[in-house]
Amino acid sequence: MSDSPAAAVASPVLLETIENGVALLVMNRPDKLNALNNELANALNQTFEKLGKNEAARVVVITGAGRAFCAGGDLAAIGKGREAKDSRQLEPILRAGMGAMLKMRMIPQPVIAAVNGAAAGAGMNVALAADIRIAAEEATFGQNFSKVGLFPDYGGTYFLPQLVGPSKAAELFYTGDMIDSATALKLGLVNRVVPGAQLEAEVKAFAARLAAGPPIAIRLVKQTLFGSEKEALGRAMEAEVHHQMRCFASEDCLEGIHAFFEKRPAKFQGR
Questions:
Q1: Among 6, 190, 234, residue whose Cα is nearest residue 100
Q2: Non-local CB neighbours of 200 within 8 Å, separated by 6+ positions
Q3: Three-class secondary structure of residue 7 per DSSP
Q4: Which of 51, 84, 88, 250 is most buried by a 10 A CB count?
Q5: What is the pLDDT confidence band of residue 90, given thresholds at 50, 70 and 90?
Q6: 209-244: b or e for each residue (b if 16 or more CB lie within 10 Å)?
Q7: pLDDT at res. 87
Q8: What digits encode the pLDDT tens for the residues 181-229?
Q9: What is the DSSP string of 56-103?
Q10: How does DSSP classify residue 36?
Q11: Residue 255 near residue 262 (C-beta atoms within 8 A)
């Protein structure tokens, strides 16, 4: 979204530029649909920590490289850990993501998620952690944890019911079904939907508008809207980690991951 970035690459998996008060973060694993591994989760955590203290950044935009926003957790890495019964393949991603989402919600700057494609699992919850979501018409959303026998994480159990209510959240969590951008707009999951070819320009113009606004007033509004959530969100994500590790250890998780890669329906046994 910038032809002349004012900052260098933060890491190979998370590109960062700052120009005219707008910080742009690009999740950069396009060959993996920007799936979250330890490196990307830690980069997000560290970068939001840094940006929260950067007075030059008045607005933060987060998006994905290539055709996806973020496909969620890297199931190849998670699957290897589950085969080996090694929680070290999952818990660090959860802990880094927990820190990143809390910082994203609590940093003083407004955060805009530019959802350019699929936002699935934890990737959907990265988008939900933002203050505002602008989606391409091609974008899709899904809490598809149940498809692989896992529990929602990255703040999903906190953010989603706030936006759509507990009953609709339950449906999305239980089924794991993907929804299109028009449905997401109708449910209030996104603020607006634009043609994919126009997403970058729309987000850039909107971010510039916010960056030109009064930073003290805007930051105080964000603090008022979201600042009181810190403890409740932290508790919710701590519970998510606990429940996720229990699900990770289950036979259902192993079956779900096998079924995913074998492109067949999973046969869950409740074990």
A1: 234
A2: 1, 114
A3: coil
A4: 51
A5: confident
A6: ebbeeebeebbeebeeebeebeeebbebbeebbeeb
A7: 76
A8: 999 999 999 999 999 999 999 999 999 999 999 999 999 999 999 999 9
A9: T-SEEEEEESTTEEE--B-HHHHHHHHHTT-GGGTHHHHHHHHHHHHH
A10: B
A11: no
Q: In sequence order, which residues have a C-beta less than 8 Å from that of residue 13 and are 6 or more positions away?
A: 27, 28, 29, 37, 39, 40, 43
Question: Residue type at 168?
Answer: K
Provide the Cα torsion 196, 194, 28, 161; round to 10°: -140
Q: Is residue 8 scored above 60 in pLDDT?
A: no
Structural contact between residues 153 and 97, judged by C-beta atoms closer than 8 angstroms: yes
pLDDT digits (tens, 9 = 90+) for 25-75: 999 999 999 999 999 999 999 999 999 999 999 999 999 999 999 999 999
List beta partners, residue 119. 70, 141
The H-assigned helical ranges of the chain are: 38-51, 75-83, 91-106, 122-129, 156-164, 166-175, 181-187, 199-211, 215-226, 230-248, 251-262
Among candidate residues 75, 184, 199, the one with its CA nearest the CA of residue 136 = 199
Rounded CA separation 151/162 (Å) = 18
Cα distances (angstroms) measured from residue 81 to each of 76, 88, 250: 9, 7, 12
- Residue 82 pLDDT greater than 80, yes or no: yes
Whole-angstrom distance, CA of residue 244 vs CA of residue 109: 30
What pLDDT score was predicted for residue 88? 75
Round to whole Å and give the CA distance between 260 and 271.
Answer: 18
The rounded distance, in Å, linking the Cα atoms of 191 and 154 is 21
Residue 172 tokens read as 């999305």
| pLDDT score at 10 | 56
